[in-house]
């Protein structure tokens, strides 16, 4: 997408926005059952954007009951695949038409640069819904190999009511990764967006209705984790639960699934991804630029952030200097300013968390090579400069714990075996990168790395055709690709006696 707007243009558009702040249940916007709201605060400048309906167990139950009614009615769950496909394609057209508005909501709500919101997040959301819509009528059943007197059919049926809990860092895109395949397979959905960034998903609900998806099929209940998220996870009439967020919350949701009705539960959780650079990397300049953007993009608020940079000791000094130089060019600016490389942290709490980790890194003895400070980019806003720690030990907290901010930990290594050992020495396993010109080493590392995605001479590769998810405590199940449909369907075996 091109972006000819200026900061003044975006601000004027922001001033004219009418925000959707109520829950969306059974085809209409409604207040929370108890009337409670919470402030939606922009991290750009601390301004209150609006008062959002604060959902509770009563609202979750109302939404789940609407979802169940719509599922049992069959208007969506039993519709021909080609009908669901055309309806989702209509939704894609509406998202495209409102791309600027949706991008602006994301930027105001969670502080990301408007260019990233429009050209990455919303563009990828459109691709997700479009690809999934095109794929849904290509999902076939199977015929089992049998004798002539029997017929074995393997068919897929929609799961039923799906509860989705999505994070604040990519509000609409992470929602799309769940919603597109869930809706494509005929399910009804109740989604709880993060209380830190609910605006774009609340606006999406209106577009879903306009596209022609029946009332009750898509419901949005904003609110906090304990008050709305856990009741959704514990609800006895939710058949499947999907989540993207922290590992700690993912573990709690798995407990809720077990404590309730053993609902299918798929968690995409945290990461502490290693980016391994060998001395024979084909282009150290390109690798350094990727190392910087891999951690500083979206203010480091990315589950696959390249937060651990493992560098072969023989090139450590030169390579870290290159990364620092690249990082200096990525200072935070006002998110509505076109070309801003970084924006604001999502809120004050996350800002303090990042600064606490920076202080911890200094206390542990790592060398601060860049940044480390809070900035007053915009008065009242939440901004932290790109930060690089060199000579980090694998046992340092900044090397082991997910910070979710623009903080890079550089760890030296001496050989391939040590690099692989350090890379895998983590409770996470979401993504990893390898930079080398040695084809055999690239394959050895890719096989040895315990991660759901491995990128060679690249960072953050892949598209809708490739599955995404993690090993170990980075979660289970996969988003994207045809494999995502597995989470939203039940597989049924039907065995027919043809012998009379």
TrEMBL record:
<feature type="active site">
    <location>
        <position position="268"/>
    </location>
</feature>
<keyword id="KW-0560">Oxidoreductase</keyword>
<dbReference type="Pfam" id="PF00171">
    <property type="entry name" value="Aldedh"/>
</dbReference>
<dbReference type="InterPro" id="IPR016161">
    <property type="entry name" value="Ald_DH/histidinol_DH"/>
</dbReference>
<dbReference type="InterPro" id="IPR015590">
    <property type="entry name" value="Aldehyde_DH_dom"/>
</dbReference>
<dbReference type="InterPro" id="IPR016162">
    <property type="entry name" value="Ald_DH_N"/>
</dbReference>
<feature type="domain" description="Aldehyde dehydrogenase">
    <location>
        <begin position="30"/>
        <end position="493"/>
    </location>
</feature>
<comment type="similarity">
    <text>Belongs to the aldehyde dehydrogenase family.</text>
</comment>
<dbReference type="InterPro" id="IPR016163">
    <property type="entry name" value="Ald_DH_C"/>
</dbReference>
<dbReference type="InterPro" id="IPR029510">
    <property type="entry name" value="Ald_DH_CS_GLU"/>
</dbReference>
<protein>
    <submittedName>
        <fullName>Aldehyde dehydrogenase PuuC</fullName>
    </submittedName>
</protein>
<dbReference type="InterPro" id="IPR016160">
    <property type="entry name" value="Ald_DH_CS_CYS"/>
</dbReference>
């Amino acid at each position: 997408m091109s972006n000819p707007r200026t900061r003044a243009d975006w601000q004027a558009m922001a001033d004219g926005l009418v925000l959707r702040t109520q829950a969306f249940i059974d085809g209409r916007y409604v207040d929370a059952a108890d009337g409670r709201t919470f402030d939606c605060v922009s991290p750009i400048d601390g301004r209150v954007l609006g008062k959002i309906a604060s959902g509770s167990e009563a609202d979750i139950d109302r939404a789940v009951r609407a979802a169940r009614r719509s599922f049992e009615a069959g208007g969506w769950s039993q519709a021909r695949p080609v009908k669901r496909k055309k309806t989702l394609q209509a939704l894609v057209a509406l998202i495209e038409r409102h791309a600027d508005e949706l991008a602006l909501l994301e930027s105001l709500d969670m502080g990301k640069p408007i260019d990233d919101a429009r050209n990455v997040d919303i563009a990828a959301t459109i691709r997700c819904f479009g690809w999934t819509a095109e794929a849904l009528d290509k999902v076939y059943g199977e015929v089992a190999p049998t004798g002539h007197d029997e017929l074995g059919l393997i068919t897929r049926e929609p799961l039923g009511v799906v509860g989705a809990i999505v994070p604040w860092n990519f509000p609409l895109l992470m929602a799309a990764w769940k919603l597109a395949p869930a809706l494509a397979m005929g399910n009804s959905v109740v989604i709880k967006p993060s209380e830190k960034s609910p605006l774009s998903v609340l606006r999406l609900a209106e577009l879903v209705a306009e596209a022609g998806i029946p009332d009750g099929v898509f419901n949005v209940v904003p609110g906090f984790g304990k008050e709305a998220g856990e009741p959704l996870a514990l609800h006895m009439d939710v058949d499947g639960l999907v989540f993207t967020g922290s590992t700690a919350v993912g573990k709690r949701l798995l407990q809720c699934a077990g404590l309730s009705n053993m609902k299918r539960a798929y968690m995409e959780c945290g990461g502490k991804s290693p980016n391994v650079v060998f001395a024979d990397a084909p282009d150290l300049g390109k690798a350094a630029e990727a190392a910087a953007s891999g951690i500083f993009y979206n203010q480091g608020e990315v589950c696959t952030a390249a937060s651990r940079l493992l560098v072969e000791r023989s090139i450590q000094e030169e390579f870290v200097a290159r990364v620092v130089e690249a990082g200096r060019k990525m200072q935070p600016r006002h998110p509505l300013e076109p070309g801003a490389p970084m924006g604001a942290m999502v809120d004050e709490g996350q800002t303090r968390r990042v600064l606490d980790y920076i202080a911890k890194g200094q206390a542990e003895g790592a060398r601060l090579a860049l940044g480390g400070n809070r900035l007053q980019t915009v008065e009242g806003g939440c901004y932290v400069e790109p930060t690089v720690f060199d000579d980090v030990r694998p046992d340092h907290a900044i090397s082991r714990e997910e910070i979710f901010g623009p903080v890079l930990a550089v760890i030296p290594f001496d050989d391939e075996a040590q690099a692989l050992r350090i890379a895998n020495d983590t409770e996470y396993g979401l993504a990893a990168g390898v930079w080398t010109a040695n084809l055999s080493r690239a394959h050895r590392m890719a096989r040895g790395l315990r991660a759901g995605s491995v990128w060679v001479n690249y960072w953050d590769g892949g598209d809708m055709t490739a599955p995404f998810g993690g090993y170990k405590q980075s979660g289970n199940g996969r988003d994207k690709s045809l494999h995502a449909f597995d989470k939203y369907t039940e597989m049924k075996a039907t065995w027919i006696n043809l012998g009379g």
